[in-house]
Amino acid sequence: MDKKSYKYVIVGAGIAGCSTAYFLSKYSDSILLIDRNCSLAQGASGAAGAFLSPLLGKPNSFKDLVTEALNFSTEFYKEICPEEITNCGVVRIPKNNEDEEKFQSYKPYMDFDFKEEENGYFFEIGSQVNSYNICEVLAKDVEKKFKYEVKTYKKENSSWLINDEIKAENLIICTGADISLIKEKYFNIRAVWGQKIDIHSTTCLSKNYHKACSLSHSTKLENENLYLTSIGATHNRIDCNLKVCNCCLSKEQLTENGFNSYTSELVRKDTQELLIKANDIKLIHEPKVVDIKIGPRASSIDYFPMVGKLIDSKKTLEKFPHLKNGSHIKNEMLSTIDNLYVLNGVGGRGYVLSPYLAKNLVDEIQKNNFLNVEISTHRLFKRWVKKLF
């Protein structure tokens, strides 16, 4: 049987994969977006609050990255789907006196206009997007294949052969916390499980808030004196099978059955924790939990994302054995795996970082632009070699 061929196959249909599909679709109509789940944005991207908020702090390269990405992604969402972004602003509230002192020290280095408001600081740029709808818009022009597990991929001539069924001239892996498809040992990801809840209540909020958790603006429900508000997210580093908890699960399913390592007890505990933290920001009247979403966020060792071609560690060490002695070589001299790319490690800022990083990745693929060294996979390889020998 003939194998179907594509110029680009993207594995992972979260915000990273969908953003990559969007920018690639400007250059090619031969794109396949694959996900093992039943639809788009079913893992960490579906469990995200999808808040767009500034990173506060003194000057550093990660803050600069987030600031540039926030400016880019906010304008990008407004341009391609203005109905799916709510630019209502965010109030950032210090958690305690120590946090307040930090905020005061950050004031000279704020990248965005702000004003003091409600025991905190209001930033007009703060927004929230509809996670599923955004991904749907981004991926609307590409072919999609759901409920499909990529188990193997190998080089066949100049193409990648996926599950002995699908050919790809270029393969792009955007699978977040599950890095089972990436065989390089230097590629290190930490899974941080997050839980977000949606509530109905009689409380109406006109803007987003962030203190010990994030609290969204409210949407009025039709024909009812009730409002929908999102609260997120918890942060749990637990030992889980990364193949579970990737679909959005209803409150009833989780409460009755639990789900492997993410037990119903932990779900109830995290739900209560979120409600307490939300009430510390604003008093929520008559809250009723109507939905719970859980997913593993992918965080790298140094918190920076990982973008671009994978370094082939075996070939590189064969070519430059002196690296074992701590020698240094230029990034462009490291051997890479042809036509294999990643976009990963966006952590809890996926909706801020992903469109910006995807644009950078596609510019590298299409225009041979160089990626910033701080987001490329080169840095991880070099750290790994230094520790290994």
What does this structure look like?
It contains ten helices and 20 strands. It has 389 residues and is of the alpha+beta class. It folds into three domains: 190 residues, FAD/NAD(P)-binding domain (3-Layer(bba) Sandwich); 79 residues, no CATH class; 111 residues, no CATH class. The strands form three sheets. Strands 5, 6, 7, 13, 14, 15, 16, 17 and 18 form a nine-stranded mixed beta sheet that branches. Strands 1, 2, 9, 10, 11, 12, 19 and 20 form an eight-stranded mixed beta sheet that branches. Strands 3-8-4 form a three-stranded antiparallel beta sheet. α1 runs parallel beside α5, α1 packs parallel to α9 and α3 packs across α9. It starts with a strand and ends with a helix. About 4% of the residues have low confidence.
Strand proportion, as a percent range, falls in: 25-35%
Seen as an oligomer or otherwise, the chain set is: single chain
* Intertermini distance: 47 Å
Number of strands: 20
Overall number of structural domains: 3
* Contiguous runs where pLDDT drops below 50 for at least 5 residues: 242-258
Looking at this structure, what is the CATH superfamily of the largest domain? FAD/NAD(P)-binding domain
> What are the secondary-structure elements, in order, as H or E?
EHEHEHEEHEEEHEEEEEEEEEHHEEHEHH
Residue share in helix:
25-40%
Give the name of the CATH architecture of the largest domain.
Answer: 3-Layer(bba) Sandwich
And the CATH topology of the largest domain?
Answer: FAD/NAD(P)-binding domain
Computed over alpha carbons, the radius of gyration is: 22 Å
Question: What is the arithmetic mean of pLDDT?
Answer: 91
Q: Which class do the helix and strand fractions yield?
A: alpha+beta
Alpha plus pi helix count: 10
Largest sheet: 9 strands, mixed
Supply the CATH class of the largest domain. Answer: Alpha Beta
What is the overall silhouette? globular
